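Quick bug: ABC transporter substrate-binding protein output formatted oddly.
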Amino acid sequence: MSNELDNLSRRVAAGKLSRRDFLGRAAAIGVTATFANSLLASAVRAAGPVRGGILRAGMQGGAATDSLDPATWSSQVPYFFGRQWAEQLVQISAEGEVKPALAEEWSASDDAKVWTFKIRKGVQFHNGKEMTPADVVATMERHSDKNSKSGALGIMGGIDNVKAEGDTVVFSLKDANADLPFLLDDYHLMIQPNGGKDNPAEGIGTGPYKIAVNEAGLRLGGEKFANYWRDDRGFADQIEIIVINDATARTSALQGGQVDIINRVEPKVVELIKRTPGVTIQNVAGKGHYVFIAHCNTAPFDNNDLRLALKYALDREEMVQKILQGYGSVGNDTPINQAYPLFTEMEQRTYDPEKAAFHYKKSGHSGPVLLRTSDVAFPGAVDATQLYQQSAAKAGITIEVKREPGDGYWSEVWNKQPFSASYWGGRPTQDQMYSTAYYSKADWNDTRFFREDFDKMLFQARAELDVEKRKKIYADMGTIVRDEGGAIVPMFNDFIDATSSKVGGWSPDGNQEMMGGYALSKCWLVA
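Here's what came back:
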């Protein structure tokens, strides 16, 4: 029986037998669907990439307001689609290492203030133009411009100037920064012709797929770019993203074969999905975290006692247990966890209704506190908000919950309304996380955390090449954010995706969901 199944599974992996026929023959000889699928998955991994076909993903995180302009990407669908048609100078591997992409190699001055990147030759944009160092410089200039409203503006603030020298691009920094290569993996910094200055939403990049369909909030598609410069990705002839913001509909689409991959599987249904034939849960821990964000410069959240009251009024353990179902860990009101190499353990904040009541009374606030939430904020966000409402009530704090529609949440609620549910996928380094979301001048400073002393510490940490001293600075910064910031962080989440047995090439990547955003270009269809 074993030899027969092995032969059949290899035929499926080679594209000579359909998955359905394989499962039918396996059932006929008394093999369970679970074991047959496991054997098939092993055969697919061993067989290697298969080229051709249309690989489809059903995703939460798309809206009619989405744009192809990389500067504006703030949710999963535009970010994920962007990974398929555009590229940065470098890419962070699943192991957390900086790997060459559009830059072949790089080096730094002894003081880490001048960085030189050698730009890869022979790379074509989808419009046929060859990428040059001038395109790289123009890209960096555009994302440094406040008018671009780029999500990368915070990290670009440390760059004094960028210039092309022959086949290289030289970055001169205001202060030393040993993390610069990591920062250049930021998904907003996609290299575009003339930096996208002519038409940033045109969708012209160097990635394995060129844009064929752009129906914002509905459907996005790409077709294989014939002149793509590398051969380790882009296996399907076509890719497609179908926006399915409803979790139940997304799961049904995977089970019914309308899509091959889905993101944002809700933890409460994971065990049920695991029992579904032909479907595999793909989960990995990382730096992603779910948050309730309060604007520190907007009443009543400009009062730190009120912010502390809201932090102590949150039962993190209950939320992790009931919302994450074990697929994550407790948060501590900072965006940094043990997944970061320079992480320092801090005293864990716990649910304390008495302390919450004390700080609430001290704040002088009375009446309800309005918290906005949505199904798209994070998996289980609406349920999490209701749990928060209940735990806060025990401290005498009334949280009024307003459920917002998913379409438009990222453009009309997040980073605009003073108290809302949200999520962060994390960043490769502490510098990048703090620079993107807590630096005073960052466009994505979504808690309106403006602290001159914090900014100085951020610059000091960048310039500090002694690892232990740098770690201590980051620890002090984390304490400030935890005790005085506007981020209420109940939990760090696993990234939970799911694939059909037709998908080969999946590998865990804790940098982001969907294999760090590369699932459609690194996976393939086995039959």
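Actually, after a second look the formatting is fine. The radius of gyration is 24 Å. Closing.
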